Amino acid sequence: MTWTNPGTVARSTAVLHEGERQVEIHARMTGTARGGQITAEWTDIEVSWGKLCGSFTDTPKVWACVEVHDGGIYSS
């Protein structure tokens, strides 16, 4: 997950949310600044079909979401 133009923020905690109620899932990750972006990465995670959203704790009202389908991931 990437946060572009984070301003002076050098680190932020990234959170993944899943499902209709957007329950927090997976381990929180610390995103670090690289070239004007803060990036956090998860590896080897399994998600269910449906809505998957990510956010950073420094921007709690800004979420990026995708719909996970049988044929792959599609932006919503």
Describe the structure.
Helix content is 0%, strand content 58%. The chain has no helices and seven strands. The chain has strands at 2-4, 11-18, 23-34, 37-39, 50-56, 63-69, 72-75. A seven-stranded antiparallel beta sheet has the order 1-4-3-2-5-6-7, with no helix packed on it. The protein is elongated. The mean pLDDT is 80.
Which helices and strands occur, and which strands form pairs?
Layout: E1 2-4, E2 11-18, E3 23-34, E4 37-39, E5 50-56, E6 63-69, E7 72-75
Antiparallel strand pairs: 1-4, 2-3, 2-5, 3-4, 5-6, 6-7
Short synopsis of the structure:
The chain is mostly beta strands.
Distance between the termini: 15 Å
Average pLDDT score: 80
Question: What characterizes the major β-sheet?
Answer: 7 strands, antiparallel
Rg, Å, rounded: 13 Å
User: Stretches where pLDDT falls below 50 for ≥5 residues?
Assistant: none
